[in-house]
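Please, structure for the following, as tokens.
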Amino acid sequence: MPGPFGDHQLKIPYEPVADLLAKYARRDAAKTAIVDLESGTTIDFGRLDRVAIDIAAYLKSKGIRKGSRVLVLSDECLEKLLIWFGIWRVGAVICPFNLEINEKQMVSLTAALKPALILYHKDIDVAAMVGEAPAERVRFGAWSAERRKDPQDELFAALPPRPGHAALQQHEVLRHRGLERPRQSRPSARATRRPPTRPRPTTAARHPPTRPPRTTRPPAIRAPRRRPGTPTRSRRPTRSRRPRPR
């Protein structure tokens, strides 16, 4: 089966977006990754990777798993991209509907989509957009690297103070295909060495006898030796006793 690029030879090998972000976070953690021209907010590659992991951990706590549908209602902004990367880390499906669609079509599309979670910007009237959809709704506001609180924000305020701290405490690495646990390092030989065990006592030591055991064997009784030239003594024939007359 031909690849997505056909016979075209790429000068730069193809890599998924999640792998590229992880590589840039390791190589250039302090370099600027995204700039929001309207708000002037910026985020570097190191913080972008950690915030995406925190959002993925938050979505997991809400019951979002691989293949779950998450409806995102927002205009183009930095927060939408952060949520986008977090949904990818869990392996869920993001559904960013175009807000230019009228309210009647949005209600029918949401009913057909059946999302597991609805994330919407604070400037959107979510009730008019989704109608009576039974999915849980979470409002998000402005994200700030200085942790400035937005009174209308519910998503970024629930993230831990240190980016990536909650997910690292649980020893879980959230990747774009789902949840994978890191490989545990092999323990050293000194750590796996067992302490010496005491020998198990014998039956005699656990249950002492009533009388002390015999330490010396009794001397053996031996017949006297016959000197050479000494005639042997013959035994007398035994006489049978006759019964006495009554």
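The chain is about 30% helix and 15% strand. The mean pLDDT is 77.
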